[in-house]
Each structure stands twice: as structure tokens, then as C-alpha cells.
Design a protein that fits this description.
By secondary structure, the chain is an alpha+beta fold. Helix content is 15%, strand content 46%. It has three helices and 15 strands. The chain has helices spanning 13-25, 67-70, 212-230; strands spanning 8-10, 30-33, 39-48, 53-57, 75-80, 83-88, 93-98, 101-107, 112-116, 132-137, 140-150, 154-159, 171-179, 183-196, 201-209. The chain has a nine-stranded antiparallel β-sheet. It is elongated, with a radius of gyration of 21 Å. The two termini are 27 Å apart.
């Protein structure tokens, strides 16, 4: 997977637990990797935010695991569509039985990194609170520009007819990304491509600057929309 967006670092226990719970709900395997080379894929089965730990199902029926899995550094990687998550397993690990089956119980990681591929997720145009980009105008209120899609790496804009088309490579500054009714994030964009389509001009941009809190809000917003779209009837 080609990752073009910078990694988003999550360090709040509640946010980390929410993403691990997503792995449980979607039955996503987690690949555990030792520095010396051995790997093992385990299925997460339960997250306990209140106890600050989570369980991964061990293969077989006996309560045993390779020594490298119980002590020493272990790197964990999981993929969900275009999103990759990775983190280091804390030292607090033990073997337990859950529902009569062997499992590895691990403390929640202190940091979880998310990487998202450009344009892996598209916002539905019919969304009630469709993201908009606010562009400053001299002597007037900001222009609210419609968006086609939004990801952790960038955004595609429905360029307004009243504005001159930007050139690829141009920087767009002084902007705000409006997500829903509550969040506005200051952003700087760089134009990647300009396409004149049948009834509109589509301008694809990448984020050049995005404040850390803005990255967090964007990640949570995208996750909420992804959850909502999965629940829509097909």
C-alpha cells in the first residue's frame, strides 16, 4: 500500500481503545513482528478500556505462545481498507483464557499511528453536513467551496466558476476546512491537478499544513463517516 499522507499519532487511551475495538468488530487480523524476523497473525477478540488492556486469540487450544511474543520488543501492524495502523506492544503481556480459548492479554499501546492512502475514502455528496472549504475574499464573506472527496492526505474541490482556475503546484493559503456544524480547521493546500469535466472544474489538492488538533479532528470525522456509510443500505 502506498502511503502518501503523514502518519497521525494517537496517544489518548480512549481514542486508541476505539480504534482497537474497530479491529475487533471487523475481525481484522493483527500482524505481530519481532525484530529478529518471526511473525504471527492474531485475531483481536476483546478490548477493555476500563482495565486498559485487550485480548488477541492465540492459535491452537493450549495456553502457550512463542517466547518472543511474551517478552522483548514486538511491532504490530493492521490494515483496514486504505488505512494502516501500527504500534508497539507494551511490556505488560500475559497468557489468559477467554471463553475457554487461549489468548494473549496486552496493555493498550501508549501510541497508535494511522496512515491513510490518498483518496481511499470519499465523502458521499448527499451527506447532510458535506465538508466545505472556506476561501477568503476581500471585502466579502468567505466563499464556501463544495468538495468531492476528503481523505487524511488531501481534498478534491468543486472549483467555483467565479474564481480563476489555479495552476498545479500553486499554494492555497488562508483557508478553513468546515466539517459538519462544529469543526473548522485552518489549512494550507497545494494543487496537484486541475480537471475540466462536463459540468464543473475539479481541483485535487494535498494538505501542506494541518495543525495536530486538526489532524485528530479530521481522522475522527473520517472514521465517523466511514461508520455511517457502512450502515447505509446498499
Amino acid at each position: 500500500m502506498t502511503l502518501t499522507a503523514p502518519a497521525l499519532s494517537l496517544q489518548h487511551p480512549r481514542e486508541i481503545a476505539a480504534w482497537l475495538q474497530e479491529l475487533v468488530e471487523r475481525e481484522t487480523l493483527v500482524r505481530l513482528i519481532a525484530p529478529s524476523g518471526p511473525t504471527l497473525e492474531l485475531l483481536p477478540v476483546q478490548v477493555r478500556p476500563e482495565l486498559h488492556n485487550w485480548d488477541l486469540r492465540l492459535p491452537g487450544l493450549t495456553l502457550s505462545a512463542p517466547p518472543w511474543l511474551l517478552q522483548g520488543p514486538v511491532h504490530a501492524v493492521a490494515h483496514q481498507g486504505g488505512v494502516q495502523m501500527d504500534f508497539e506492544l507494551p511490556a505488560e503481556r500475559s497468557l489468559v483464557e477467554t471463553g475457554g480459548l487461549p489468548a494473549l492479554r496486552v496493555a493498550l499501546p501508549s501510541e497508535l499511528r494511522r496512515h491513510q492512502r490518498r483518496q481511499t475514502f470519499r465523502v458521499q455528496p448527499a451527506s447532510l453536513h458535506h465538508p466545505r472549504l472556506l476561501m477568503p475574499r476581500v471585502g466579502a464573506l468567505p466563499l464556501r467551496v463544495r468538495t468531492f472527496d476528503l481523505s487524511a492526505g488531501g481534498i478534491a474541490l468543486h472549483w467555483p466558476d467565479s474564481c480563476e482556475k489555479p495552476a498545479p503546484g500553486a499554494l492555497l493559503t488562508g483557508l478553513e476546512l468546515e466539517m459538519g456544524l462544529e469543526h473548522r480547521i485552518p489549512v494550507t493546500l497545494q494543487v496537484q491537478h486541475v480537471r475540466v469535466e462536463r459540468e464543473h472544474v475539479r481541483v485535487g489538492c494535498t494538505f501542506v499544513t494541518l495543525p495536530p488538533e486538526g489532524e485528530r479532528q479530521l481522522a475522527l470525522y473520517l472514521n465517523q463517516l466511514q461508520r455511517r456509510q457502512r450502515n447505509l443500505p446498499r
